[in-house]
Amino acid sequence: MKKIYVSLLLVVVMVIAAACGSNNSGNNGNDNTSNNNEASETMTIEHELGTSEIEKNPEKVVVFDFGVLDTFKKLGLEDKVVGVAQAGVIPSYIDEFASEDYANIGSLKEPDFEKIAELDPDLILISGRQSEVYDQLQEIAETVFIGVDTENYMDSFTENVTTIGEMFGKESEVEDALAEIDDTIASVNEKAEEADKNALIILANDDKISAYGPSSRFGIIHDVFGVPAVDEGIEVSTHGSNVSFEYVTEQDPDLLYVIDRGAVVGGESSAKQVVENKLMERTKAFQNDDIYYLDPEFWYLSGGGLISVQEMANQIEESLVK
C-alpha cells in the first residue's frame, strides 16, 4: 500500500508540474506576441501616388530627395539612411551623405534599381523627379512620395516632416523645428510689409534666364514670405517662363532674387556676370543694390526640409533689412 501511495503522489506531482509548464509557456508566448506587436507597429500614409502602410522606425531607408535628407540630418536620423542618389551634386551642407557610408543608388532621374534591390530597404522615399518610376521602386520596397506641393507649400511641407517625425518617434523635435520656422516666417512677413517692395525671381542658367512667380517652384517668396510679385501673371512651370533682360527692365522690380543654377550643376558662367549687365543697370534693383543671389543649394538642389526651409526664410529676411 505504501508503494502504491508513493506512486500516486509522484503522478500527481508530475501532472501539476506539466500544467505549470504549460501555463508558463503560454505566458511567454503572450509576452513575445506583445513585444512583436510593439516592434511591428505600423502607420498608414496617404500620398500623391497612393496609400502606403509601413512599419514604424524602419531600419533601412533609401532617400532620393535632398530636402528629406536634410530633415533626417536635423532629426539625427542619418544612421537610418542606407542609399542616396550620389550620381550628381549633393548640397555641401549635407555632404556627409556623399560618403562611402551610404550606397550610391544612381541619380535623381535615373535610379540604379539593381543597387537598390541589393540594399533590401524597408522603405524608399521619393519626390517629383522619381514619380515616373514609382511602380518600379514599389516592386522593390514600400515607396512613399514625400515631395512638396509648391502651390500649397507650407501645408505639404508640414505634413511631410510631421510624417517623418511620426515614422521615427521624433514628433516633439519636429514640432520644435516647425515652431522656429513659423516664428521666422512671421518676422519675414512683418518686414516685407514694412519694406513695401515688389520682387521678381529669376533662375540664371549660364547665359539664359527664366522667371518664376506665385505658386511656382520658388513661389514661396511670394506665397509664404509675403513679398509681393512685380508680375502676377508669370506662367507656372517647373522650368519657369523663359524671359529676356528687356522683360526684367520693363517690369523694373524693387527687389531681384537670382538663383544661379550654373553654380551647382557645373555651369561655366557666373550669374552675377550675366545678370549685372548694361541693360540691367537701368533697374531700381541694380541702382539700389537690391539684387540678391540666393544660395542655390537650398533653393535649387534641395528645399522642403527642416534645415533648408529655415535657411530660405533667413535669406529672404536678410534681404528685407537694410
Summarize, please:
The chain is of the alpha/beta class.
* Inertia-based shape: globular
Amino- and carboxy-terminal Cα gap: 109 Å
Number of strands: 12
Poorly predicted sequence stretches spanning 5 or more consecutive residues? 1-38
**Structural class category:** alpha/beta
Estimated helix fraction: 40-55%
Mean pLDDT: 88
Protein name: Siderophore ABC transporter substrate-binding protein
Membrane topology: Lipid-anchor
InterPro entries: ABC_transptr_periplasmic_BD (IPR002491), Bact_iron-sidero_bind (IPR051313), FatB (IPR033870)
Family: Belongs to the bacterial solute-binding protein 8 family.
Characterization of the model:
This protein has 13 helices and 12 strands. The chain is an alpha/beta fold and 322 residues long. The strands form 3 sheets. A 5-stranded parallel sheet has the order 5-4-3-6-7, with helices on both faces. The longest helix has 38 residues, at 2-39. Mean pLDDT is 88; it is low at 1-38. Belongs to the bacterial solute-binding protein 8 family. Keywords: Signal, Transport.
Highlighted features:
322 residues; alpha/beta; five-stranded parallel beta sheet; five-stranded mixed beta sheet; 13 helices; 45% helix; globular; signal; FatB; transport
What is the topological layout?
Blueprint: H1 2-39, E1 42-47, E2 50-55, E3 61-63, H2 66-74, E4 81-84, E5 103-104, H3 113-119, E6 123-126, H4 134-140, E7 143-145, H5 153-168, H6 171-195, E8 199-205, E9 208-212, H7 220-223, E10 241-243, H8 245-251, E11 255-260, H9 262-265, H10 271-275, H11 284-287, E12 291-294, H12 296-301, H13 306-319
Parallel strand pairs: 3-4, 3-6, 4-5, 6-7, 8-11, 11-12
Antiparallel strand pairs: 1-2, 8-9, 9-10
